[in-house]
C-alpha cells in the first residue's frame, strides 16, 4: 500500500496548510491535531465520501473488523517525520506487522503512505502517514496520572474487565504461527459510549512487535537481544530475561506475560511494580526486576483482594519457564470475574 502519485502533493499540502489528505484514493479532511511526541504528530481526520464509485469509503474497500469502522467517518492519522535510514527501516518494519492484526482489542493499522519530501537544505527525506481508529480518551498513562492525582482507583471488577480485554488482544497476537510478542505493552482505555459497560481496552503501538520465539545459542546473540530490548522495550515492563539474557536459552511469548503482570499492577495502582527502586538510595530497577522484588502500595479502601495480588505474582515469575501462557491467564481472569460479578437477585 501507499499513497497514489497523484495524491502526494495533496497529502503534503494538506498536513502543512489545509486541504484533504488522499491515501490510496481515500480522501480525509484534517480536523485538528490531537497529539505529538518525538518525530510524530497525530491528527483527527474525517473521511470524505461522495457518490463517485472511486470514493465509496474506506470500509467498503478494505476488510475491516466492524469495531474499526467509524460511524461518523473520523479516524486518527499519525504523521512520522523520518530523518534517517534507520528510522525509515523501523517504520517499514512496523507497517506490515501492524497490518497483521484485526481484533477489537488491538489498534489495527487501517492504511498507510510513505512519501518523499524535499528538505529545507534541498535534500530528500521521508514522511509516513499511518491511519488508525480514533480513541480520544488518551493513553492509559494519561488516565492513570489523572486518577492518581485524584486518589481514585478502579474497582476490583473493573480492573479484571479491563485486563480481560487486554488478554484477548494479546491472545490474538500469540495465536499466530509463529506467535508474535508485543514487547512493549501499551494501551488505551476508552470510556466513550460505554454506559453500563466496562471501559474499552485497546492494545496499541506495534513498532516493537516481532516473532516471539528466539533461540539464543551464544553470548553474542544474548547481548544483541539485550541491546535490542534496551532500545525498544520500556524498562518498567521489560522481562528479566531481556535484561540479563543467558547465553543458551529459548525466548518465547512469555516475555509478554511478564509485561501483563506489570500492566495489571499498573491498572490497580497507577504505577508499575518496580518503579519504587528508582526512588530508593542506591536502588536499581534492573535488580528489582530480575529478583522480582514486588512492593505493594496502599490501595483502595477496602483494599484489593489477595486473589488479585496473587494473580499479579503468578505472572511476575523471574524464571520464564514457570510463567503461565496467555490461555492460562484468560482462564484465570474469567474465573475471577465470575467470582466478583454482583450476584443477580432472584
From TrEMBL:
Enzyme Commission no: 2.7.11.1
Residue numbers binding ATP: 62
GO molecular function, one term: protein serine/threonine kinase activity
Protein name: non-specific serine/threonine protein kinase
Sequence ranges assigned to domain Protein kinase in this UniProt record: 28-341
Stored Pfam families: Pkinase (PF00069)
InterPro entries in the record: Kinase-like_dom_sf, Prot_kinase_dom, Protein_kinase_ATP_BS, Ser/Thr-specific_kinases
UniProt cross-references to Gene3D superfamilies, sorted A to Z: Phosphorylase Kinase, domain 1 (3.30.200.20), Transferase(Phosphotransferase) domain 1 (1.10.510.10)
Keywords (A to Z) from UniProt: ATP-binding, Kinase, Nucleotide-binding, Serine/threonine-protein kinase, Transferase
GO terms under cellular component: cytoplasm
Catalytic activity: L-seryl-[protein] + ATP = O-phospho-L-seryl-[protein] + ADP + H(+); L-threonyl-[protein] + ATP = O-phospho-L-threonyl-[protein] + ADP + H(+)
Amino acid at each position: 500500500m501507499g499513497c497514489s502519485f497523484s495524491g502526494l502533493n495533496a497529502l503534503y499540502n494538506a498536513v502543512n496548510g489545509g486541504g484533504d489528505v488522499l491515501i490510496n484514493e481515500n480522501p480525509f479532511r484534517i480536523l485538528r491535531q490531537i497529539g505529538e511526541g518525538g518525530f510524530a504528530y497525530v491528527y483527527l481526520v474525517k473521511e470524505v465520501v461522495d457518490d463517485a464509485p472511486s470514493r465509496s469509503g474506506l470500509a467498503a474497500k478494505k476488510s475491516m473488523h466492524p469495531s474499526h469502522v467509524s460511524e461518523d467517518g473520523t479516524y486518527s492519522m499519525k504523521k512520522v517525520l523520518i530523518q534517517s535510514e534507520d528510522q525509515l527501516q523501523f517504520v517499514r518494519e512496523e507497517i506490515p506487522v501492524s497490518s497483521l492484526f484485526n481484533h477489537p482489542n488491538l489498534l489495527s493499522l487501517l492504511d498507510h503512505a510513505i512519501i518523499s519530501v524535499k528538505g529545507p537544505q534541498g535534500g530528500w527525506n521521508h514522511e509516513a502517514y499511518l491511519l488508525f481508529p480514533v480513541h480520544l480518551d488518551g493513553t492509559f498513562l494519561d488516565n492513570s496520572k489523572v486518577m492518581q492525582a485524584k486518589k481514585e482507583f478502579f474497582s476490583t471488577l473493573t480492573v479484571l474487565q479491563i485486563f480481560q480485554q487486554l488478554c484477548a488482544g494479546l491472545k490474538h497476537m500469540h495465536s499466530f504461527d509463529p506467535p508474535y510478542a508485543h514487547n512493549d505493552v501499551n494501551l488505551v482505555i476508552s470510556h466513550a459510549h460505554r454506559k453500563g459497560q466496562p471501559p474499552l481496552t485497546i492494545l496499541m503501538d506495534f513498532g516493537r512487535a516481532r516473532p516471539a520465539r528466539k533461540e539464543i545459542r551464544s553470548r553474542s546473540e544474548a547481548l544483541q537481544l539485550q541491546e535490542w530490548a534496551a532500545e525498544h522495550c520500556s524498562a518498567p515492563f521489560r522481562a528479566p530475561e531481556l535484561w540479563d539474557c543467558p547465553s543458551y536459552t529459548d525466548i518465547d511469548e512469555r516475555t509478554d506475560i511478564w509485561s501483563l503482570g506489570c500492566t495489571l499492577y499498573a491498572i490497580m495502582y497507577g504505577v508499575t511494580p518496580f518503579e519504587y527502586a528508582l526512588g530508593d538510595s542506591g536502588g536499581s530497577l534492573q535488580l528489582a526486576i530480575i529478583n522480582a522484588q514486588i512492593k505493594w502500595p496502599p490501595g483502595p479502601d477496602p483494599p484489593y483482594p489477595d486473589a488479585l495480588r496473587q494473580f499479579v505474582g503468578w505472572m511476575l515469575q523471574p524464571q520464564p519457564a514457570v510463567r503461565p501462557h496467555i490461555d492460562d491467564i484468560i482462564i484465570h481472569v474469567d474465573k475471577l470475574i465470575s467470582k466478583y460479578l454482583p450476584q443477580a437477585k432472584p
